[in-house]
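wait is this the right file?? whatever heres the structure
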């Protein structure tokens, strides 16, 4: 009765959590709502076949890392076996008349499944705890608490079975429930047989001289249908031998009952926590991987809705960051907002709570702007998340929250405000991307304003009306000491880095390198302006 009440309570919490999580979907979507047609634009196009294959067989993880797929598949298959055959044994026994949890095949399979799950959790914890976390973002270690709980569930299950093997009070209970034996009617013979063959530990050992064959016959009559020798439970039997002496004393205090409630309690806690922890990805991954991948054409056709399931399906495996085309940008700038696995966590937090840390939002926006939208991260994602769609949705989200991209920030900022603070000078440094050329007069003083660079520039040729200054005019601003004004020029921000101007310059001026340096410094200035505005708004 108590267990049924606790199970019902855990199920109520689980279902309430699901309702809460699903109700938060439109709440997250409203951050990127674009008019009344948002719901129609955000409809899901399903890829049922791909989602089913990835959910059942984890095909994407197999492509990404076969060894990790093997470990993960063993963990999942072991957990599913324990859930279906062990936790739901009442249902299993009703479906299969020959099923008994105490006979050899199922004892062995139960222990083997527990080993798979426990070993997988240990490997996961070792890998996660030794991982480097970029210092720019404060991110929790997802999955560690759930893994510890699952490990405790498996460990308590092994201990429970080991104490049940050696427990004399439990043996007496089973005899009383399933036979009419007593001390004068064969009980001691059966108990002696279990001491010798079933690893039972008893307080009184005087019965050992009794007839072995009699105990064997009684065991055959009353026990064999439900209980084989426990040796097939290789882990539990080994533990029983290890705790044999002290365990005998503890068994008399019914430590097996304590372990039963501990084991059941952890299982119920895990059930209740599924919607509120990273374990929710067990539900989110099938949904996320069943959504059709976005294409450049589909992105242009309509607005992007923030995909709630993509945010919660991430398991933080970091395959996406390992194949990211712009990972070198992170190595240069140190901005962890470039890394896909970091962006997912930050976007999820921002969608749920808004901009809490202005610095994180600014770095995230700059990192997302660096993304080439090549799709390699989504192609390798084991959870099947459409990451390109997510990055596009994140841009809309951050614009809605008042954090535009640097390009927009530059041209939305009045020129007097943009030039109001002087940029710090930089010393030449060959170990960094910015060489300080814009602060070295000798780098551009020989410009004779011949306009060869401007005539060769494809940006000027393509958009003569939108380009306010040509490359030669940017060099002239630097000669006049107007570096701050130069950084706000569309020429600096639209430069294609084709190096035509630099290659054709008769004076050998490093024009493209200077334009790139000005753009980087302009990005830092744009980030500073956004950070100041967001901080003042938050305050």
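ok assuming it is, sequence goes like this
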């Amino acid at each position: 009765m108590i267990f049924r009440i606790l199970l019902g309570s855990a199920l109520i919490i689980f279902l309430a959590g699901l309702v809460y999580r699903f109700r938060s979907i439109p709440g997250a979507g409203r951050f990127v709502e674009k008019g009344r047609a948002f719901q129609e634009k955000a409809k899901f196009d399903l890829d049922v076949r791909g989602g089913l294959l990835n959910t059942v067989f984890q095909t994407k993880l197999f492509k990404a890392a076969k060894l990790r797929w093997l470990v993960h598949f063993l963990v999942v298959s072991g957990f599913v076996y324990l859930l279906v055959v062990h936790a739901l044994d009442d249902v299993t026994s009703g479906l299969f008349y020959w099923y008994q949890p105490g006979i050899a095949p199922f004892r062995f399979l139960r222990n083997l499944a527990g080993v798979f799950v426990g070993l997988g959790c240990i490997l996961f914890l070792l890998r996660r705890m030794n991982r480097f976390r970029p210092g720019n973002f404060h991110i929790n270690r997802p999955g560690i608490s759930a893994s510890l709980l699952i490990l405790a569930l498996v460990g308590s299950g092994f201990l429970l079975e080991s104490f049940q093997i050696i427990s004399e009070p439990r043996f007496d209970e089973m005899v009383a429930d399933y036979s009419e034996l007593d001390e004068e009617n064969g009980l001691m013979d059966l108990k002696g047989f279990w001491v010798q063959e079933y690893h039972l530990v008893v307080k009184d050992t005087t019965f050992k001289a009794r007839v072995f064959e009699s105990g064997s016959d009684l065991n055959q009559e009353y026990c064999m249908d439900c209980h084989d020798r426990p040796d097939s439970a290789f882990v539990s039997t080994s533990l029983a031998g290890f705790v044999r002496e002290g365990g005998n004393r503890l068994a008399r205090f019914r430590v097996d009952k304590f372990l039963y409630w501990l084991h059941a309690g952890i299982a119920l806690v895990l059930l209740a926590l599924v919607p509120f922890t990273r374990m929710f990805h067990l539900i989110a991954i099938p949904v996320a991987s069943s959504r059709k991948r976005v294409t450049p054409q589909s992105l242009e056709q309509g607005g992007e809705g923030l995909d709630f399931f993509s945010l919660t399906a991430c398991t933080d495996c970091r395959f996406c960051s390992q194949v990211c085309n712009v990972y070198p940008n992170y190595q240069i700038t140190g901005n962890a907002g470039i890394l896909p696995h970091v962006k997912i966590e930050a976007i999820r937090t921002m969608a749920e709570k808004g901009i809490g840390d202005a610095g994180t939002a600014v770095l995230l926006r700059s990192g997302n702007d660096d993304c080439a939208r090549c799709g390699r991260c989504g192609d390798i994602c084991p959870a099947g998340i459409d990451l390109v769609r997510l990055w596009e949705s994140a841009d809309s989200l951050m614009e809605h929250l008042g954090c535009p991209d640097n390009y927009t920030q530059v041209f939305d900022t009045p020129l007097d405000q943009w030039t109001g603070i002087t940029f710090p000078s930089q010393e030449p440094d060959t170990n960094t991307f910015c060489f300080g050329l814009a602060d070295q007069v000798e780098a551009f003083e020989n410009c004779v304003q011949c306009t060869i660079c401007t005539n060769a520039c494809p940006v000027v040729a393509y958009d003569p009306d939108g380009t306010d200054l040509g490359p030669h005019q940017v060099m002239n601003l630097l000669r006049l000491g107007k570096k701050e004004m130069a950084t706000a020029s569309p020429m600096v921000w639209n430069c294609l880095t084709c190096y035509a101007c630099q290659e054709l310059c008769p004076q050998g001026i490093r024009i493209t390198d200077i334009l790139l340096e000005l753009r980087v410094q302009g990005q830092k200035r744009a980030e500073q302006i956004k950070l100041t505005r967001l901080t003042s708004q938050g305050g």
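The two ends are 53 Å apart (CA to CA). so i think its the right one actually
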